[in-house]
Design brief:
- The chain is mostly helical.
- The chain has a domain of about 40 residues.
- The protein is built from three helices and no strands.
Length: about 100
């Protein structure tokens, strides 16, 4: 009878230890309550990065559209040829603009 009582108590203590361990992981684990603010900050940073990359993608998409062989923009084509080949007429003046 005494062994049965000790066995029951040990089972309860083991169950309590497991529950406390699970509660500890829920609070202090990598996805727990304490890491919540870090996750929110990381999410905001990723959203800013996605917005920046989306803007870059849209700018590149527009540039590709302007370079369509069927209807290329003459100003852009002229700019690219001059930039790539370093060709400039004697009577031209180059004005550089700061990128924002």
């Amino acid at each position: 009878m005494r062994k049965a009582i000790l066995g029951e108590r040990s089972k309860r203590w083991i169950a309590l230890a497991v529950l406390l361990a699970l509660a500890g992981v829920a609070v202090a684990g990598p996805t727990g309550l304490l890491a919540w603010s870090e996750n929110v900050a990381a999410l905001k940073q990723r959203e800013k990065e996605i917005a920046k990359l989306t803007a870059e993608r849209d700018a590149l998409r527009n540039r590709v559209k302007l370079l369509d062989p069927e209807a290329a923009d003459p100003d852009l084509a002229s700019e690219l040829v001059r930039e790539q080949l370093g060709v400039i007429h004697e009577d031209e003046v180059v004005v550089t603009l700061e990128d924002e």
